[in-house]
User: What shape does this take?
Amino acid sequence: MKIASGNSSPRGHREFSTIEPLEDRIAPATLIVTNTSDSASTPGSLRAAITQLDLPHTGLDTIVFHLPASPSPAVITLGSVLDITNPVTITGPGVNKLIISGGNATQLFNITSPSTITGLALVDGNAQGANGGAIASTASLTLNHCLISGNTTGSSAFGGGVYVKAKSAGSTINISNTVITGNYAAFGGGGADLYASKGVTLSSCVISGNSGAGVVAKVPASATGGIVVGGCSFIGNQAGQTGGAGGLFLVIATIAGPAKAKASISGSLFAGNSGSVGGALETFIESGSLAIQSSVFRNNTAAVGSGLYLSNQSATPITISSSKITGNSATDPTGAGGGINLAGGSFTITASQITDNTSAGAGGGIGAEIRAGSLTLSASIVDGNHAAKTGGGIDISAGVVAKITGGSISNNSAGTDGGGLAELSTGALTITGTHVLGNTSHGDGGGICVDFESDDTVHLIAVTVADNINGVFGDHKGGGGIELDGAGSFTLSGTVIDNTSFGDAGGIQINGSRTGAITATVAGNVATFEGGGIGAFGSGTVTDIPALVFGNFAPTDPNTFGI
Assistant: This one.
């Protein structure tokens, strides 16, 4: 090796600032960028360094930057895309010190070999109708401490900021400590559209203000790395021309072979996103599993499922734990789920808060539109939600087996039936040890309204149903606390007190051919017409313990009617 006396080197030799090797290039090395030129013929330019990657060699090259102190930040404006065809690590000086710009005229990087990029601001890329405004990659990609901003696919395509489709075995995507903001894709993945055969990881990222959804993340069911989203913020993103999620669309797709993929979302914030389904989050889990932990979904909007729209075809339930779903708004009067729409499959929600959500249709807090699925809700708070139609707090339909344990359903309201909870289709319902308090409905069942279409069971065990209100004066709607209609059997124990019906049955109304036993204390309830405590109006057989039904009021039969 000798010190170079000129500014250029012949083909087959490498330049290290002003040091050039004489031997043929066979080993990996560090290439140093010293200026902001975009010419491949200018020594020390980024384009010249990337051209050097094409020379025959083995191993992984590294590109670093030793730029003048002024101006800061330095800007490299590209006239055409930079093609990366060999493995490389590009280590920038930091997003506030170096900007790579496409000038809104060109894509920045087209990558076909595993690459790592750190410490760069990648801005104003334009893929002119192709995928990936800033980056398009078909290989494993790692981004760390980067800024991806103001990039676009143009009139169509996917991945406004970043597009990766890494299908080779073992391919991964890792994006950490990166801000992805203000990017656009017409068809999806405004911030990023990501697919990798082994796994996708997003950690400590901010995804904000993108159009076409914040991030689309997909893996096959065989992906042992799954999809991991941890400590990220999805803020103010919106769906694209084809609709869908605003913040994050997460997919585990079925392929041949065993299902190993596990997806997780933890410690993340979803706020102010908007879409057609799943303002914050939409999932399509064909196989594998998804766990959502310690995350917040706040002030998102969508036609249905404004916080979360969850579709699960896997045998493993989607789980939500220690999370908060609040202030979300669903706008479709024919839809359901102001906070959460459960669109299919099995779900378990534990120790979570579902509060102050609204739906123009059903299910202010939760809309369970599952077919042949299940919902298990435990130790959770469902409070202050509103539905224009049924189920102010929770609306359950379409064959759901629902089990609710502990927690509270309180201060919710419905424009029609079931201020706290409505289950109005075939299924089975068990509620154990839950407080149902202060809910209101304009129809039947201020606290709980059940109207099964077939012979299914209802078990209300050790419940506290108090201070609920139903009906509009004079309309003969019933069940200030509880309305049980339809066929099948029921059991009811616990306490039903201080509820009010502006129609019949201040505490409990039994309709249809339902048959069962009431062993609850029923006291202090008020009805405008008949049955202050209990009103039985159907053809079924209802038994109670008279000593536990007392102190209720109605003009006709203040304690019990029809028993």
Q: What stands out?
A: Residues 1-184 form one domain. The longest helix spans residues 46-52. Residues 1-25 have pLDDT under 50 and may be disordered.
